[in-house]
Amino acid sequence: MTITQLQYVLAVAEHKNFTLAAQKSFVTQPTLSMQVQKLEDELDILIFDRSKKPITITEVGKKIVNQAKNIVNEANRIQDIVDQEKGFIGGDYTLGIIPTVMPTLLPMFLKTFIKRYPKVNLIIKEQSTENLIKNLQDGHLDAGIAATPLEIEYLKERPLYYEPFVGYVPPGHRLYQQPKLKPEDLDIQDVLLLQDGHCFRDGVINLCKAPRNFQEEHFRLQSGSFETLVNLADEDLGMTLLPYLNTLELDEQKKEKLKYFEAPSPAREVSLIYHKSELKIQITEALRDVILGIVRGAIAFQDVKIVSPLNK
Amino acid sequence: MTITQLQYVLAVAEHKNFTLAAQKSFVTQPTLSMQVQKLEDELDILIFDRSKKPITITEVGKKIVNQAKNIVNEANRIQDIVDQEKGFIGGDYTLGIIPTVMPTLLPMFLKTFIKRYPKVNLIIKEQSTENLIKNLQDGHLDAGIAATPLEIEYLKERPLYYEPFVGYVPPGHRLYQQPKLKPEDLDIQDVLLLQDGHCFRDGVINLCKAPRNFQEEHFRLQSGSFETLVNLADEDLGMTLLPYLNTLELDEQKKEKLKYFEAPSPAREVSLIYHKSELKIQITEALRDVILGIVRGAIAFQDVKIVSPLNK
DNA sequence: CTTAAATAATAAGTTTTATTGATAGTTTTT
DNA sequence: AAAAACTATCAATAAAACTTATTATTTAAG
């Protein structure tokens, strides 16, 4: 049994296809096939059921694949130990960021980070919390930035900042006269929402504590961008809620329609999340340092109340 | 990096000697030297400091060795998974037993075990609790039988039986007239003890709750066997305490000098202990089943009070 | 039902790697 | 100072991993 063989097994388990797995492993298909077979021979057990298309993993195979993940992870850790010893911060580092955080946060820290750690090849991917979690487990991401708490067994969460929710209320709206918003004022029926899959949407829904199964019949216009929501609100189609950082880039005219919540303001907790195995932890720590340093100035709110980002 | 290389590193770390490590790994010394070098080259860091004799492990080396242990252990687990799947119970299994348990317990279960699991090659080693713990961590033992609780972080303890302490009191002794013993009657100064290193000794000392630093000036005759202690007691040099199972093999004349404790009798907890990683867990479970089945008949005491085996 | 496409297994040959025996270079012990 | 113990290096060999080419098998398409 070799580590390489285990990596091949993992590739096949992931892609359910020897040819593709071989490509991803940068070897030819026979090489991969033979090595997987060799391992199966050595263990005298089948890991994959090749009779079905696409290939399936046998019951024992699943256990072996899990264990193989462990081993390969732990093996990668050795390079990690050496890097840490040398104070080396470099290599590929893949970071996932949720869409509602991406456009505001990324520009704030990216330049500083790549300047301070020029040897790190940062690969940034925008994806939903759901995919983020999956990819962190699979090892396709080294870390993610998402709204928390998620309370996933195998993930660590390190809060970066607390971002208050800010109301965007058009003049015609019933709440326009109020100086401050209160969560209980909100009616889910007239709050414009991001489309399904965005955790900010779920956060807002949780905040509104509306009936779980509210009807959306008369309102199908959901958007993926806050800009759209703001524009819809301006058309008197309802109010909406924005994360604080998104309010900074509004023009003066629109800023007048912002309404803050009474303290403690509802807020989302935005955290750096990564696998408990702490692979590439030095880079993760470096990233955290950079973001914390920059965010400290931008967000000064203290008295907030965290809203869960989960669709419970 | 290969698993083999990591195993070589572990062998060198253990024996502090490339030549010996090579022998233990069943390869020649150049093979092992070259592979270790190759790994060091790949990581671009020195694991061993060869300038000192005997060889020492560098600071990073220590971390790498630890991680290597993990990896090798986790890798062995894969065969384990397969064995479990197949219901296969076999292969080498090394069991350590403390000296005070060995002569009474081993004959009780050995025959049954090798008959029921003929494919297991049982290797039994008598050793002190201290060595048992060390060897379980190093992976030199698959399991051990010792007095518990030990509360070692990386070990699991599964109690096998509770063995009461029984007094052996010669007719001339001040306690001979009493029908039952009480712990508070005991005076550490006239209780004959096993020599240092036996945990039963520590158990008895704990029971006597004598001053921790009692003097042994006038009594240096410590022995490694209960037989000696009994004979010394017969010479009126004091009383002694025996584990219950040891009392079964005394002759009739000696049995008359046995004095049991009042309930709850002090007792030692004898457990099967093994590494938390649960390597070869099927064999361990099989062993436990056999011993439990046999011991159930032999030891029927219920109301006991466990004495710590540790030299606190 | 036949054919084409996709995919895995097999075969033969090549490259790479692991291992060995012999030996040279150290350090430690006597 | 010599012997012993130990590690590194070298050249040769055995083993393995990998490649290209090909075959076999399954799935999808016509």
TrEMBL record, chains A, B:
SUPFAM superfamilies: Periplasmic binding protein-like II, Winged helix' DNA-binding domain. Residues 1-58 form the HTH lysR-type domain. PROSITE patterns: HTH_LYSR. Keywords: Activator, DNA-binding, Transcription, Transcription regulation. The keyword Transcription regulation applies. It holds the Pfam family HTH_1. InterPro entries: LysR_HTH_N (IPR000847), LysR_subst-bd (IPR005119), WH-like_DNA-bd_sf (IPR036388), WH_DNA-bd_sf (IPR036390). Belongs to the LysR transcriptional regulatory family. This is LysR substrate-binding domain-containing protein. The lineage of its organism: Bacteria, Pseudomonadati, Bacteroidota, Flavobacteriia, Flavobacteriales.
